[in-house]
Amino acid sequence: MEICKQKLLLVKEESFEYNAQINNKLDVINFITDIIKIHNEAQEVVYLLTVNSKNQIVGFIEIARRRNKLVQFVY
């Protein structure tokens, strides 16, 4: 059987300034509330936040979304 190596490429959808450091869970909650607007979601959503060595968020991506008791991975 032949298998293939695959690559997932990310495409920048938009960018904006956000210079706050992430020092505790409240900082993360503020980010997902103010920027991602997760409270507007009708279902559960999993995001991956990426930070640099100064604990500043440099990106985020939606990983999975729950729909009707099933998790749909977004990739």
Helix fraction?
Answer: 10-25%
Query: What integer is the average pLDDT?
Result: 84
Largest sheet, if any?
A: 3 strands, antiparallel
Order of helices and strands: HEEE
Question: How far is the first residue's CA from the last residue's CA?
Answer: 25 Å
* Dominant shape: extended
| Main β-sheet, spatial strand arrangement | 1-2-3
Tally the helices: what do you get?
Answer: 1
Describe this structure in words.
With 75 residues, this protein is an alpha+beta fold. It has 1 helix and 3 strands. The chain has a 3-stranded antiparallel β-sheet, with no helix packed on it. A hairpin with a 2-residue loop joins strand 2 (57-67) and strand 3. The radius of gyration is 15 Å and the shape is extended. The two termini are 25 Å apart. The mean pLDDT is 84.
Q: How do the strands and helices of this protein lay out in sequence?
A:
Layout: H1 25-34, E1 45-51, E2 57-67, E3 70-73
Antiparallel strand pairs: 1-2, 2-3
Compact description:
This protein has about 80 residues and is an alpha+beta fold. It has one helix at about 25-35, and strands at about 45-50, 55-65, 70-75.
Can you tag this structure with a few keywords?
75 residues; alpha+beta; 1 helix; single chain; three-stranded antiparallel β-sheet
